[in-house]
Amino acid sequence: MKKLLNSLESEFENNKLEIIINDNASSDGTEEMVREYIKKTDCIKYRKNRKNYGFDYNFNQAILESTGKFIWFLGSDDIVKIDAVKKIIDNLSENINIYILEGDMNIGNKTFLRNGLNAVNLQEYIKIENGIYEYIDDIKSDISYLFAFISSIVVKREDYVEIKIPEELKNSAYDHMYILLKLVSKSANIKYLKESYYEVGINENCWNNIRGKHFLLDIKSLHKFIENIYQDNKDEIIIRKSIGKLFQRNCSKISMIDNIFYAKENKEFEIFENAINYFYMNNLKYRFYKNILVNKMTIYILNLARKIKNRDK
């Protein structure tokens, strides 16, 4: 978070900006560090929970404590690019409900633009009233552009807070994705900003260092959300097929084997396969990967490879 606040320091005197930090009962010195920045500016609002209530509760509380017209969701380990806030503010319009931002990602010694959409200049405005599947079909391969990756999203606050997530769908780590999908189902307008506004943090965490875990979260959450939002909608089947194709664009052969293996290993294979079927992904290729993992020797080799990989870390 220190790198994030450092990247925002040049904006501290911007009277259009408020920085909301909700601390989920951390014990790593975050409070002391944030207090030092509060001495420099009045734009930071800091609140610390008595205990860790989980990502979704903490995230939603930060939204409720905000007062601006638009909200930029930011991960604590991401970095804001120079002039990014000004450029976003210059783009804001009452006619746009959601903005999708590009950002940089560091892989090895190289920096890459996370250009997640196939949009060309004339497609910079995406009219969702024609069907969300048109937007999904425009996503290259990065499932996070289906409203999962928080630092790529700016949303109109009044639209966001009016959507209520059903109790049975809460606390998946994707409350925000449900709300944005629901908002889009009400004919929201999206603007895609084709420039780098942030840099993705490279810290390993419980999601990005376990292959298969993130895919399982994505597919089972989207299964529940799409089923809830679009049930009996005339476009539901088209949307389901579009998301299935996006998942397939997102998965290499090796990663799909990892995804199947993770679901089996964690006794969530029935949930996983229901989602695979829901998104029409139970094709010959998927069944081939699944049959590979019936072989006990294959499972033994994969387990051994994982142990060696973890030992080397």
One letter per element, helices H and strands E, the order comes to HEHEHEEHEEEHEHHEHHHHHH
Task: Tell me the β content.
Answer: 15-25%
Provide the residue-averaged pLDDT. 87
Tell me the overall shape.
globular
Number of strands: 9
Residue ranges: pLDDT <50 for 5 or more in a row?
Answer: none
Helices, by number, come to 13
Structural class: alpha+beta
Kindly give the count of domains: 2
How far apart, in Å, are the first and last alpha carbons? 24 Å
CATH architecture of the largest domain: Alpha-Beta Complex
Query: Could you give a short account of the major beta sheet?
Result: 7 strands, mixed
CATH H-level name of the largest domain... which superfamily?
Spore Coat Polysaccharide Biosynthesis Protein SpsA, Chain A
Class of the largest domain in CATH?
Alpha Beta
Helix amount, in percent? 40-55%
Radius of gyration: 20 Å
User: What's the CATH topology label of the largest domain?
Assistant: Spore Coat Polysaccharide Biosynthesis Protein SpsA, Chain A
